[in-house]
Structure formats: structure tokens, C-alpha cells
């Protein structure tokens, strides 16, 4: 894994009409692969602009989201009517889930330089970092993020809305201290982290009663609420005969756990040669048909993250197994993390939608 020398933060991006359908089985937020795609596209544009930076990790913090759906017990996407066909007949409606977002992207950065050349990404080169961050922000303004358009940022009192860069100290203690300062700027919000461990635990639980349960069974079981009668604390029966119902595997305080797509798995043992598949996007590269790979994720407050690696997602490709997926470095802490006084001020403050945006 490439060593992270600095971070590039694109704060409070306002994304309009982003894709809300992350995979054939999930919706509600873009897939993490959409943000790794943005990262790679931005790196290519930075190279064209003469900025010698390599982007190799991305973290996502969501401050506000608005899925464009009808309200009620059963919801459906707000769809648009396409223009009529050339013969005047009504065109078919293709379901297209859309949503508005306000997010912060945190990108892991290292410098591209030839051997023997001096480093430009150094601690005291603040002016150069500000120039590169501004260039990245200007380039991203003309790009698509998860299929959505980037709207101009609105100045918010007390919040940094302009892109910025910072050096990651080599000393672990100094890096942890800096990260505690950075994570305060991403409040209020929720960071998406990977929880593969919860999927393994759910599979182990299912196999106590269903020995032939698979990972898919565990994922589907964890993706829904499984209500059943809950016993009382002392094991007694209520005098009025009432029984409390709930999901014993989702107790109060268990967190905001969600099913998410994390990458792709190959459907063929070998990749097709360049130019051998008709209508391929790039005829100069090998092509491989894939399907989505799923896992579990969790939305947690940034103040509960202990290090930068717990926030970042990295792409991992295993050609032999045909597995192309994103991995996150989050590991649940055995000790509860206590927010500092500055963090509490953010956490206890009421969120005002007017601070985000109102799309029309």
C-alpha cells in the first residue's frame, strides 16, 4: 500500500442528482466504487494540469442527503418523462434513482517525483499546497460525482468550504493529534466505514440453527429487521400478558449498519483480449464481465474515528480470484470513545437544513 504523505480535503461538496441506486440490490447512497472512480478521474486531470500528485485512498463523510422519492409507507423514485419517440409515441420510463448530497471527500495523497528530485510536498510549503488544492477543487467543479453535478459551495460561518491540503506527520503520535483536529471539521456528519466483521458474526450466528447458511443468507438477514418476542430482563412474564417485540441482533446503541456494495467479482475465468468484445468502452484494454460484491458498512460520527486509515477506502484487485473490491481500515474499538468538549458542541447542536442547500 502506498504511504500517505498528505490529505486533500474537498469539504461540503453539494452534489445534485447523484445516483441513489448503488447496485441491483441496494439504494439510498452511491456505491463506494463511485467515489474511487472520482478519485482516479481527478488524478488523471491533475496530471494533465501538471500537478504531480497520486491519489490512492478516499474517505466519505455525508453531512446531508435527500433521496428523491415519494413520501409514505411505500416509497418510489421520482421519475422523469423522456421525450417522445421519433414517431410521436410515448417513450418508455427507465427507473432512475436520484438524490441530492452534501459530502466531504478526504483523499490520501502522495507525490509523484523522479528519483533524485527534491520533494515539493513538504511541511513548510503551504503556498504550494494551497495552489494544488485550489486546482483540484476547480477541476472537480467540472466533473460528475456519482453521476451528479457539483454545485458551487456556499460560505458557512465556522466551516471551511474551500479545498485544502495538510501533511500527515510521520510520527504516529503527531499524526493522531493532527487527525483529532481534522475530524472536528467534518462534524456534524457521518463517515462510511466497512464492517466485514459483522457479516462474519451474522454468518456464525445463523449457522447455529442453519448449518447450511451461506454468506448471502447472512447478508440478507443483516439487511433487514428480524423482529421476535423479547424476554424480560428477569425472565418473568408481564402481568398483563404483553410481550415486547424487537430485533435481538439490533439492540439499542448497535449503530447504523447498512448493506453496501464494495466492488465486483469476475464472471469469467479469464479476461477478454483488447478489442475482442464489441462496443466495449475502451478497445485498447482487456475486458472482464463482473457482478457486484456486497458486504456490510456502518455510518459513524467522525469523532469516533481514531486514525486516518479508519476513514479511507483503498482499491484492491486480485486477478487470480477475479475479485476487485474496496477495503476499509476501520476496526471497532473495545473501549468507548469519548468526545471532547469541542466535538460535543457540534454533536449537540441542531442540524439546520438551511445550512446545507435547497434544490429546486
Keywords:
360 residues; two-stranded antiparallel ribbon
Overall description:
With 360 residues, the protein is α+β, with helices and mostly antiparallel strands. 20% of the residues lie in helices and 27% in strands. The protein is built from six helices and 13 strands. The chain has helices at residues 32-48, 126-141, 172-184, 196-206, 215-222, 341-348; strands at residues 6-19, 53-67, 98-111, 144-145, 148-151, 164-167, 190-194, 228-230, 244-246, 256-266, 290-300, 313-318, 323-328. The strands form two sheets. Strands 1, 2, 3, 4, 5, 6, 7, 10, 11, 12 and 13 form an eleven-stranded antiparallel β-sheet that branches. A two-stranded antiparallel ribbon has the order 8-9. Helix 4 (196-206) crosses helix 5. Residues 335-360 have low confidence and may be disordered.
**What is the radius of gyration computed over CA atoms, rounded to a whole number of angstroms?**
23 Å
Oligomeric composition of the shown chains: single chain
Shape: globular
Distance between the termini: 43 Å
What are the low-pLDDT stretches, counting only 5+ consecutive residues below 50?
Answer: 335-360
One letter per element, helices H and strands E, the order comes to EHEEHEEEHEHHEEEEEEH
Instruction: Count every beta strand, where a strand is a DSSP E run of 2 or more residues.
Output: 13
Quick check: average pLDDT? 84
Amino acid at each position: 500500500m502506498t504511504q500517505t504523505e498528505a490529505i486533500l480535503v474537498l469539504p461540503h461538496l453539494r452534489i445534485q442528482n447523484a445516483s441513489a441506486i448503488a447496485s441491483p440490490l441496494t439504494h439510498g447512497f452511491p456505491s463506494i466504487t463511485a467515489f474511487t472512480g472520482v478519485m482516479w478521474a481527478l488524478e488523471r486531470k491533475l496530471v494533465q494540469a501538471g500537478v504531480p500528485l497520486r491519489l490512492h485512498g478516499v474517505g466519505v463523510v455525508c453531512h446531508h442527503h435527500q433521496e428523491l422519492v415519494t413520501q409514505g409507507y411505500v416509497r418510489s423514485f421520482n421519475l422523469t418523462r423522456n421525450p417522445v419517440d421519433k414517431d410521436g409515441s410515448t417513450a418508455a420510463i427507465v427507473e432512475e434513482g436520484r438524490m441530492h448530497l452534501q459530502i466531504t471527500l478526504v483523499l490520501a495523497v502522495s507525490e509523484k517525483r523522479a528519483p533524485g528530485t527534491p520533494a515539493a510536498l513538504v511541511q513548510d510549503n503551504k503556498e504550494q499546497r494551497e495552489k494544488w488544492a485550489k486546482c483540484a477543487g476547480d477541476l472537480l467543479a467540472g466533473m460528475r460525482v456519482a453521476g451528479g453535478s457539483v454545485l458551487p459551495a456556499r460560505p458557512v460561518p465556522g466551516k471551511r468550504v474551500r479545498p485544502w491540503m495538510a501533511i500527515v506527520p510521520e510520527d504516529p503520535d503527531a499524526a493522531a493529534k493532527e487527525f483529532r483536529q481534522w475530524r472536528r471539521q467534518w462534524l456534524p456528519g457521518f463517515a462510511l466505514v466497512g464492517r466485514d466483521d459483522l457479516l462474519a458474526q451474522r454468518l456464525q450466528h445463523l449457522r447455529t440453527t442453519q448449518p447450511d447458511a451461506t454468506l448471502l443468507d447472512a447478508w440478507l438477514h443483516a439487511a433487514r429487521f428480524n423482529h421476535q418476542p423479547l424476554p424480560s430482563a428477569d425472565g418473568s412474564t408481564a402481568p398483563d400478558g404483553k410481550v415486547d417485540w424487537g430485533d435481538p441482533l439490533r439492540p439499542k446503541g448497535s449503530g447504523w449498519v447498512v448493506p453496501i456494495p464494495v466492488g465486483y467479482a469476475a464472471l469469467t475465468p479469464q479476461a477478454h483480449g483488447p478489442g475482442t468484445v464489441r462496443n466495449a468502452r475502451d478497445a485498447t484494454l482487456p475486458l472482464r464481465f463482473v457482478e457486484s460484491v456486497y458486504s456490510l458498512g456502518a455510518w459513524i460520527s467522525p469523532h469516533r474515528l481514531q486514525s486516518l486509515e479508519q476513514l479511507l477506502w483503498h482499491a484492491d484487485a486480485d486477478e487470480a480470484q477475479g475479485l476487485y473490491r474496496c477495503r476499509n481500515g476501520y476496526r471497532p474499538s473495545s473501549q468507548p470513545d469519548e468526545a471532547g468538549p469541542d466535538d460535543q458542541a457540534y454533536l449537540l447542536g441542531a442540524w439546520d437544513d438551511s445550512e446545507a442547500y435547497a434544490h429546486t
